[in-house]
Amino acid sequence: MSSKTIIRLDKYLSSQTKLSRSDAVKAIYHHKVTVNGKMASDPAMKVNTETDVITFNGEELSYEEFIYYLLNKPAGVVSATEDKEYKTVCDLVPKDIPVFPIGRLDIDTEGLIVLTNDGKLSHDLTSPKKHVDKKYYAKLDKDVTDEMIKAFAEGFDYGEDKPSLPALLERKCENEAYVTIHEGKFHQVKRMFKTFDREVLYLQRVSFGKLILDGSIATGEYKKIKKEDII
Length: 231
Ligand code: URA
Prior knowledge:
19% of the residues lie in helices and 28% in strands. The chain is built from six helices and 15 strands. Strands 7, 8, 9, 10, 11, 12, 13, 14 and 15 form a nine-stranded mixed β-sheet that branches. The protein has a four-stranded antiparallel β-sheet with strand order 3-2-5-6, with no helix packed on it. The structure holds uracil (URA).
């Protein structure tokens, strides 16, 4: 049995429900949690994630080892687990189970990023062979031209070893566009636009795989999601 399977009850509860750690403690004090049929009263009680039966508000929880969050990243936050200077994306979600971001968004880029403790999925989704669709909304300092739309569709040299893979550039209005890319090179979107002498004034990731940033999650907020929601 791994030591990971023995954890505190409040940690178990907050990692498997939407409760924060402090709300999990309150729920235990308010007799909303049972362990193996008995009312729990001690948040520090150790439980076995594989064998103990835990209920919250009368409903049995089934323990999931891997957790996945969709975060709407604000600007000014770095895509890392820790940083000496800046707040990180991981500071914005509960800390009960350590998670890390899948891929990166620049510090000034906003929008959809997935945080997880699932190393295999992260590796699979960021591997160069796996082309997960990523869609961005971009506001530029100048107009989007038909030439650019054509060049994005065909692929072009933007300073990498290989030209960009075909990408979809959709004009929203003169200097605003959606761009869907299937790879994720360093500063890729900004560098692609830079090739056409365009500065990106604002960048937001609006989708990643099957995930879409709808209006339900405010900037800086997150929601728990399932692995199947991603890809
Ligand atoms: N491309 C960029 O240039 N920046 C991001 O943050 C993401 C994609």
